[in-house]
UniProtKB/TrEMBL annotation:
It comes from the Bacteria. GO terms for biological process: proteolysis. It comes from Tianweitania sediminis. GO terms for molecular function: peptidase activity. Residues 10-157 form the Prohead serine protease domain. The lineage of its organism: Bacteria, Pseudomonadati, Pseudomonadota, Alphaproteobacteria, Hyphomicrobiales. This is HK97 family phage prohead protease. Keywords: Hydrolase, Protease, Viral release from host cell.
Length: 221
């Protein structure tokens, strides 16, 4: 499952060369606005894998893979969080724009894009502890431009977890719940909506149920 964090407003330094340093996320403490806590050591395996392959997470603008704006030079965990050192590409327009915005303090956020490998959920508080993450990219972001998308991606993942528990308990999902569950599993809007309609029609109709199963099998590959 791909996810992104809310922006961490902790860019520590910015040089004229375009080099900068900051935290992509922080460990422990109080849950963030979306009820998540990232455990210390959550990135260790992913960073080790990147090192073994000679790679680094990507540096994007606003989590947009079509807009790389430089590269990360170093990434490590300390007792505070995920500390990164990167360099903006000053030969591309978006890199220069990001530098100017950072320099003036107009934006100052970093946000990680990752896949969850291991996690636990406190059923009493609803707090997710993310224990092992596959770090894919770390973006420079503006809070206002990305806040809604981040909130929705995190909420969708949590909703999918809750609905999975409902299914395990033998409860039937509404069309809307079924659609939310599929989106949380990574299906596109159109795929989830079509599957939800088939699911609703299938209730009490064996032929439609078979059609729904065939459709879901095709989506799952």
């Amino acid at each position: 499952m791909d996810k992104k964090t809310a922006p961490i407003l902790e860019i520590k330094a910015l040089k004229d060369s375009g080099e900068f340093e900051g935290y992509g996320s922080t460990f422990g403490g109080e849950p963030d606005a979306y009820g998540d806590v990232i455990a210390e050591g959550a990135y260790a395996d992913s960073l080790a894998a990147h090192k073994a392959k000679g790679t680094m997470p990507k540096l994007f603008w606003q989590h947009n893979a079509d807009q790389p704006i430089g590269k990360w030079l170093d990434a490590k965990e300390d007792d505070h969080g995920l500390l990164l050192r990167g360099k903006l590409n000053m030969d591309v327009q978006r890199g220069r724009e990001a530098y100017a915005l950072l320099k003036e303090g107009d934006i100052d956020g970093l946000s990680i894009g990752y896949r969850i490998k291991e996690y636990s959920v406190d059923t009493e508080t609803g707090i997710w502890t993310l224990e092992k993450l596959d770090l894919v990219e770390v973006s420079i972001v503006s809070v206002g431009a990305n806040e809604n998308a981040v909130v929705q991606s995190v909420k969708a993942a949590k909703a999918a977890h809750d609905l999975m528990e409902k299914l395990k308990a033998g409860d039937r999902l509404t069309e809307r719940e079924f659609e939310v569950w599929l989106k949380g599993l990574g299906f596109s809007n159109s795929q989830a909506e079509r599957a939800a309609r088939i699911h609703l029609k299938a209730q009490g109709e064996p032929a439609k149920a078979d059609e729904g199963l065939d459709f879901l099998r095709a989506l799952l590959g």
